Prior knowledge:
Blueprint: H1 5-12, E1 22-28, E2 31-36, H2 41-45, H3 50-63, E3 66-71
Amino acid sequence: MTLDFKSWVRALHPVGWISKHIVDVDFAGPELLITVKRDEFGTFVGHRGVYIRLIDRVFRRLLGIGVRAVEAEE
């Protein structure tokens, strides 16, 4: 097991090319903070947050940590 959670997010996210737009994945307290480029943030989160809730649910069940997404400051 590695701490490269970007590959985990790429494997779980329904949009395969979204990994090109992930800037950083790091721990922020008890949660995993995923920083995504501003232009593709909507695609990452999904309609009504469906994709981010999926990723959050999987990480909570597997590792017991939550996931939060933020836009990257450019």
